[in-house]
Amino acid sequence: MSIDNSIVKKISKLSKLKIKSDSEDKMAEELNNILNWVESLQEVNTEKVEPLLSVLNEKMPLRDDKVVMDDNQVDILNNAPEKKSGFFVVPKVVE
């Protein structure tokens, strides 16, 4: 794929970036260089390489999965601007 000035203008419009018309040629060249570099990465043989979660290859620390019953309704409803019968009162959004 080759990027020309019309694609640079479209990218500019979609990304809401102002690219001056005198720098469109340079931007097209830089984007083409990036695409060529990505294309060259596709040629690298990664058949025997295992995927990594991180370049540091460390294990993720896991926490114990414990059930905590912390349903203090009174404390929770104290922060509500309006409440009724133990529930939050909110404006009607569907008619």
Gist?
This protein is mainly alpha-helical and about 100 residues long. Helices cover about 40% and strands about 5% of the residues. The protein has a two-stranded antiparallel sheet with strand order 1-2.
Features:
95 residues, mainly alpha, Histone, subunit A, two-stranded antiparallel ribbon
How does this structure look, described?
- The radius of gyration is 28 Å and the shape is flat.
- The chain contains 3 helices and 2 strands; from the N terminus they run αααββ.
- Strands 1-2 form a two-stranded antiparallel ribbon.
- α1 packs across α2.
- It is mainly α.
- The protein has a domain of 38 residues: Histone, subunit A (Orthogonal Bundle), CATH 1.10.20.
- Helices cover 38% and strands 4% of the residues.
Structural class: mainly alpha
- Poorly predicted runs: none
Portion of residues in beta strands equals under 5%
How would you describe the oligomerization state of the chains in this entry?
Answer: single chain
CATH fold assignment of one domain: Histone, subunit A
Largest sheet, strands/sense/barrel: 2 strands, antiparallel
Mean pLDDT value: 88
Strand line-up of the largest beta sheet: 1-2
**Global Rg:** 28 Å
**CATH class membership of one domain:** Mainly Alpha
- Separation, N- and C-terminal Cα atoms: 51 Å
Number of helices: 3
The number of distinct β-strands equals: 2
Form type: flat
For the record, the CATH architecture of one domain stands as: Orthogonal Bundle
